[in-house]
Amino acid sequence: MPKENRKNQRQLRREKQRSQIAMRRWVGYGALALILIAAIFFVSTRPKAQPLDAKRLASNPTLGPDSAKVTIVEYGDFGCPTCRAWQRAGVLKQLVATYGDRIQFVWKDFPIITAQSPKAAEAGQCAFDQGKFWEYHDLLYDKAPALSVAELKDYAAQLGLDTRKFDQCLDSGQDQAKVAQSLNEAQRQYGFPGTPSFLINGKKLVGPQSFDTFRSLIDPILAGA
After folding, report:
1. Are residues 32 and 124 in the same domain?
2. Burial 16-31 (b: 16+ CB within 10 A, else e)
3. What are the tens digits of pLDDT across the range 85-123?
4. Which of 41, 101, 107, 217 sits most deeply, having the most CB atoms within 10 A of its CB?
């Protein structure tokens, strides 16, 4: 083969390689552009959360009147197996059945056990916004550990909540500030190490408590001791 032909072929191969490299580069640029466009679209279409006012931040799900002589606060986690076991043991129902309006039971979020716990806590607050926290609370404990975002939304639909409002609340992180407030309170103000934890008129109890333990603290308060 003449020397000049070999030189031309080498030059053609180099040009072909350069062309292939340039093509791969532009394909990469195109993929990156699509990713950026998708990210911008996601951010622009994500529901916008409205800041919570002081009244909403001070609101908590309760059972019983504000005038009750005894206030029991539970710091709980929907992803916590121990919380779930305490709930299923029926201690809360026994307290309500025994003491009625003489006690007020308050729920506060302490979502620290699983990766799904914070979003489940938000979902509970979104249900609270529609006046169905306790129904949603019970259903979550019945369904746990199935607490994916899709499942949280499905449970809202099962309870007849306004799913458009619920989904917007959950997707936007509408109640993140409320969940964070309760979490911070449990950890920093009271130093609770885990869930469930309780306050009875400010007295700290850590871990799942029996009905008899609650009764030993409640009865003296109600008796005026």
Report:
1. no
2. eeeeeeeeeeeeeeee
3. 999 999 999 999 999 999 999 999 999 999 999 999 999
4. 107
